[in-house]
Design brief:
It is globular and about 35 Å long. The chain has two helices and seven strands. The strands form three sheets. It has a three-stranded antiparallel beta sheet with strand order 4-5-6. Strands 1-7 form a two-stranded antiparallel ribbon. By secondary structure, the chain is mainly beta.
Amino acid sequence: MGCGRGNSDSGNHSSKGCVCEVVRAILEIQNAAVQDECNRCTTNCFLEPLGGIVNPARSNADTRVFTLLNKDGSPFFATFSNEPSSPCVSIYFRVEDIFDGCCATLRVLIPEDASGNPVDLLSNCGSKIDFREVCRVTQFDASDSCITVDLDCFCAVQCIDDVDLGICD
């Protein structure tokens, strides 16, 4: 059986996972980039317009940065191409496309500190995320690496920030 697609629902109806719907909404918000002066919960993934998370006055955002949590609660991470001596793992993503129901292409974002230096998110052991390092991340840059995922395999999505990465349409 594929991840996240159990048949524990006792009814005869099927439902999409909420992670899928949130990521789909993020894509729609990024694509629409409409102006709206409402100020709601500042970290709600459904908040419009793009640029509304953290700084509702920001109008030049083209990306809603988010993280995904695996079913065991651990952060999902992916690698990105980078210089050999630099860190190359990230938990931050930008949705590029959604297709076949709940599959998505995600761009891996490079986590950076306030000085624009890449942050190495891996612990000394090299296989787990170091949350002390996550706390150092204050900005992001686009990598050239993308990953295709089944959004039904995740249990949570957390929106982090709206940023301008200079992504071309």
